[in-house]
Amino acid sequence: NDPLSSVDPEIAAVLQSELGRQRGTLEMIASENFVPRAVLQAQGSVLTNKYAEGYPGRRYYGGCEFVDVAENLARDRAKALFGAEHANVQPHAGAQANAAALMALATIGDTILGQELAHGGHLTHGMKLNFSGKNYNATSYGVDPETYLVDMDVVRAKALEYRPTVLIAGWSAYPRQLDFAAFRSIADEVGAKLWVDMAHFAGLVAAGLHPSPVPYADVVTSTVHKTLAGPRSGVVLSTAEYAKKVDSAVFPGQQGGPLMHVIAAKATAFKLAGEPEFRDRQQRTIDGAKIVAERLTAADTVAAGVSVLTGGTDVHLVLVDLRNSPLDGKQAEDILHEVGITVNRNAIPFDPRPPMVTSGLRIGTSALATRGFGDAEFTEVADIIATALKPTPDVDALRARVLKLTDGYPLYDSLENW
Ligand code: PLP
């Protein structure tokens, strides 16, 4: 019963330091968020002790009467939140959800067609070192070299050329909305199944601020920890037609025992995502990203050579193009780190620099919107970023401006020491 601080002071110190880092910096990694304390509680609970292979009412272990309640709540809430006919809430992470989606929709060796990794796609959509590229015949479409948008005529031409079993829509780094109806009609034309990976924009969909792929896709996967602000994990939604295939692809296809503590935390996150406060937060997320994009391109603030791909954003992230800047992605990431803003460097389409350096930054606003930021705070953040990307910035002065913001929006102030 001893607390972590006495059982394992070294790990307690890591937790304490990480809490301090999260409190004292501005988190702008587009795939991150801050979960509510209620989600932390569900996840850090006695449900971690329980084995529950199988599904509610059909388990391979005894004693599942309470975890069944949690999983049913998570499934029902996910279905209601997204208007889906079926939900599987067991995937440990987004990658497992995606492996299950492909397993449910295709056979090893089949052709799949997804957005190229270097153009904003995800590695589980066919990257050659990933299971998706090793097990399937992976083909891809990219973005247009002028507009940086996914061009549906190109997607259609590629689909007609490759005749994929599965057409994939979804991204990790793309600042605009996809046309799901057009993807559906191309899938129908070539006899493909449509899988949408909404990992990044699921929170916006839940809030009704982004078109939903659910009415168009056979299978929709998502992570729960990005804009959705739940525990680090995945979920698969599908039509009733694919329900059985999805369930057997997740278990026993991809996984063993489900993480019942995480499933309970997912249930809580799905509940919160249906509330008005969540919608307000997603609106501030999108508004904040638009402010960052505007300030990083406005004549009075912009640093030389800094621009924003597609000229703006419709979602929670901005892709900064540094191809004409003296800074590369790594240098820009480092200078922002010094002032206390955490972002990730990101290859942009047609990037001339190597992947460990890159010519881009991916900047997201979800975590700061969760922290409470609105237009005024995002304007200040954008001006700090714009100034930091200019030659010889005053790092101490910028760090002080960051601390003023973090002090104004305390994080997890009810959490005690470990
Ligand atoms: N799908 C997309 C579009 C993603 O961006 C990510 C994460 O970056 C994943 C899937 C994988 O999620 P995880 O890291 O939980 O495996």
Automatic annotation (TrEMBL):
Site (Plays an important role in substrate specificity): H225
Binding-site residues for (6S)-5,6,7,8-tetrahydrofolate, renumbered to this chain: L117, G121, H122, L123, E241
Lineage, highest ranks first: Bacteria, Bacillati, Actinomycetota, Actinomycetes, Micrococcales
Protein known as: Serine hydroxymethyltransferase
Recorded family membership: Belongs to the SHMT family.
Cofactor(s) the protein requires to work: pyridoxal 5'-phosphate
Annotated organism of origin: Subtercola lobariae
EC number(s) given by UniProt: 2.1.2.1
Entry GO MF terms: glycine hydroxymethyltransferase activity; protein homodimerization activity; pyridoxal phosphate binding
HAMAP family: SHMT
InterPro entries: PyrdxlP-dep_Trfase, PyrdxlP-dep_Trfase_major, PyrdxlP-dep_Trfase_small, Ser_HO-MeTrfase, Ser_HO-MeTrfase-like, Ser_HO-MeTrfase_PLP_BS, SHMT-like_dom
Catalytic activities: (6R)-5,10-methylene-5,6,7,8-tetrahydrofolate + glycine + H2O = (6S)-5,6,7,8-tetrahydrofolate + L-serine
Highest taxon of the lineage: Bacteria
Primary role: Catalyzes the reversible interconversion of serine and glycine with tetrahydrofolate (THF) serving as the one-carbon carrier. This reaction serves as the major source of one-carbon groups required for the biosynthesis of purines, thymidylate, methionine, and other important biomolecules. Also exhibits THF-independent aldolase activity toward beta-hydroxyamino acids, producing glycine and aldehydes, via a retro-aldol mechanism. Thus, is able to catalyze the cleavage of L-allo-threonine.
Segments forming domain Serine hydroxymethyltransferase-like: 4-385
Subunit structure: Homodimer.
Keywords: Amino-acid biosynthesis, Cytoplasm, One-carbon metabolism, Pyridoxal phosphate, Transferase
GO process terms (BP): glycine biosynthetic process from serine; tetrahydrofolate interconversion
Pathways per UniProt: Amino-acid biosynthesis; glycine biosynthesis; glycine from L-serine: step 1/1; One-carbon metabolism; tetrahydrofolate interconversion
UniProt signal peptide: none
Subcellular location: Cytoplasm
Positions where N6-(pyridoxal phosphate)lysine occurs in the chain: K226
UniProt gene name: glyA
Predominant subcellular localization, coarse grouping: cytoplasm
One GO cellular component, as annotated: cytosol
